[in-house]
Design goal:
Layout lengths: L6 E8 L2 E7 L19 H15 L9 E10 L8 E9 L4 E7 L4 E12 L5 E2 L1
Antiparallel strand pairs: 1-2, 2-4, 3-6, 4-5, 5-6, 6-7
Length: 128
């Protein structure tokens, strides 16, 4: 059965920042067709995973009412391939309403960026 997420092991944590060790399994569904000759992890999947794991591990500082607004300074420097063992660092800065993410290993930085969030107002609109 295909997987949606890598195996994630919590390696370091504090209330606003975590480091996860990710084992990038070749059976992850997002490798299918991207690309047939050499599978690489799509950038949009990296962003999806960053938010997914932040919602799990940073829930005390990243309330569920926070809504994604836009991305800032996203950079994809190296491709992530099946069977890689990488780190994902996540930090939520509540005062800026931004989730900082970085995928890396000892030799490379694969990608990084910021996800900006808004809080809904009482009239239903979102404010950054």
């Amino acid at each position: 059965m295909k997987k949606l997420f890598p195996e994630a092991l919590l390696s370091e944590t504090d209330p606003e920042c975590i480091n996860l060790q990710l084992n990038i399994d070749p059976e992850i569904v997002y490798f299918d067709g991207h690309f047939p000759e050499q599978a690489i992890l799509p950038g949009v999947t990296q962003i999806f995973w960053a938010e997914h794991f932040a919602r799990i591990y940073l829930s005390t500082v990243m309330p569920p009412e926070e809504r994604f607004s836009h991305l800032e300074a996203v950079k994809f420097q190296q491709v992530i391939r099946p069977n890689e063992k990488i780190q994902l660092q996540l930090e939520f800065k509540k005062d800026k309403q931004k989730l900082y993410f970085k995928y890396f290993d000892e030799e490379h930085q694969f990608s990084s960026g910021r996800m900006v969030y808004t809080q809904p107002s009482h009239d239903g609109t979102a404010h950054v």
